[in-house]
Amino acid sequence: MLSLTSVEISTFIGTFWWPFCRIMGGFLVMPFLSSGFIPVTVRVLLALSISALFAPMLPTPPAVDAMSVAALLLAIEQLFIGFMLAFFLTFMIHIMTLVGAMMSMQMGLAMAVMNDPSSGNSNPILGQWFLFYGTLLFLGLDGHLVAIGILVDSFRLWPIGTGIFDLPLMGLVSRMAWLFASALMLALPAILAMLMVNVTFGVLSRAAPSLNVFALGFPMSMLMGLLCVLFSFTGLPSRYSELCLEALSFMYGFIGGTA
Description:
Layout: H1 6-27, H2 40-54, H3 69-107, H4 111-115, H5 125-140, H6 143-157, H7 169-207, H8 213-232, H9 236-254
């Protein structure tokens, strides 16, 4: 009959379970892998495979009793570390959502959300489109492979049991400003172009009050907005690739790594 001692159980948990918790915490919020279209079983099996593959090469974890409260707290700590590491990528991917939302507000597409409250989705259709585009571009750049490599490398740079409060948590919070600034930078040309269109219709309404500006303005705003979206894609891939590299650099520097 197979029997395991508490020391053997603690060694097993330290070798496989805690790395699995950190990697799984990253998969909960990482772009594409956190999508509802990816079954939970696939994510769990992928995290188990990665932890089993790299566990023998990781630094020796601290000796903690498997049945103690300290083991539970350590597992939760690893989940939070993986969660915070992948949160940088969540900021990066939602830049595209904000870009689409800003353009939609200028084009009038944001009204579709107000007119369709039964959809249960607060994002304009253009924001969802930009989100899909950003996700595919991130996958095309092999950003998910680099992110998984940083998660694995985090066990060397930030070993298990080091603690969570010594991490630069304010650096994670400051990325919120980077999120809004990057989204505004990408959407600014389209916003300025649509502003000029709205100013033109404002002048037209003053020059010809009898003209139905609303009947003419909404279709023209939509048409000009779609043209702005088309022109914005000429420089969007290269600029968004730089933002992906910045997000991965932030993720690597969060655990003390240097590029």
